[in-house]
Amino acid sequence: MFGGVEAGGTKFVCGIGTGPDDLVTAHFPTTTPEQTLRSVNDFFSRHNGGPLQAIGIGSFGPVDLDPASRHFGHITSTPKQGWQYVDLAGLLRQALNLPVALDTDVNAALLGEARWGAAQGLQDAIYITIGTGVGGGAMVHGQVVHGLVHPEMGHLHLPHDWTADPFPGLCPFHGDCLEGLASGPAVQARWKQPAHTLPPDHPAWTIEARYLALAVMNLTVTLSPQRIIIGGGVMQQPHLFPLVRNEFARIMNSYVRHPHLSTGLDEYIQPPALGGRAGVLGSLVLAESALHQAEGSR
Ligand code: ADP
Ligand code: ZN
After folding, report:
1. Do the Cβ atoms of 183 and 134 come closer than 8 Å?
2. Ligand 1 first shell, C-beta below 6 A
3. Comparing 2-108+276-296 with 118-271, is the CATH topology the same?
4. Interval between CA 183 and ligand 1 midpoint (Å)
């Protein structure tokens, strides 16, 4: 039995179980690190002494995933007030006395989708979330990519037609990167109304689909994934998927040729099969790897 934590800027989702058919969850608002982690500890402590073997955490970032770093397991330079350099993995490891593994929220979601969802059986896949922020994770040869730090696909730079879209973007670092132009808060700021209140025929969605298609195009030509899963609150607009697929096909212009990129686009670009549970379920996969690592080093 594993524990999973999806650590988000708004809420923490905790789960205990073994998979989608066996998962008990609870969620807590993200307040101060002390208060939030106390709620998380209490949740798991109630089940500890029982069969809980390890904890996995998929967290908002940036996070330090380098075992050689003194901030390994910490959230690092986040703009989230009070959460800079919080030792998320260390604090939970100490409190619960269990092996803990940490990765980004999107890598966790991707692991969940690869085990039980829309990327099952694939070796190369990408998961992007379009929510309060934009983030992405990649699996290459069956392994999630960390690289130097970890991918930050939300900050891709895309062609920005200032005439068609004079909105300057919201990213505090880059202005009009993908996150700056296409996150939920960016949609809201551009149109001065919350994204979920914009009707399906609103021009907002053509612009949104354009940026998402450009991102999918860039990721396709960079990593050649077998599938790109797009989740997050903004994708709760189901009509966005056909718009993104059509725009992607238009700008790809048949350059990369594969049936998945023509007749198979409905599968190539698709929502997470695990829906909002991808992150917490993927954290169980991380927990499993924490256990294997702990057993291996014993
Ligand atoms: P977070 O990124 O904080 O983990 P979400 O993925 O749910 O959470 O993203 C929240 C963002 O998604 C908000 O900015 C909100 O405007 C947007 N959003 C939530 N629901 C919808 C919806 N039904 N349609 C469009 N946008 C939505
Ligand atoms: Zn940016």
Report:
1. yes
2. 8-10, 129, 131-133, 184-185, 188, 194-196, 232-234, 236-237
3. yes
4. 8
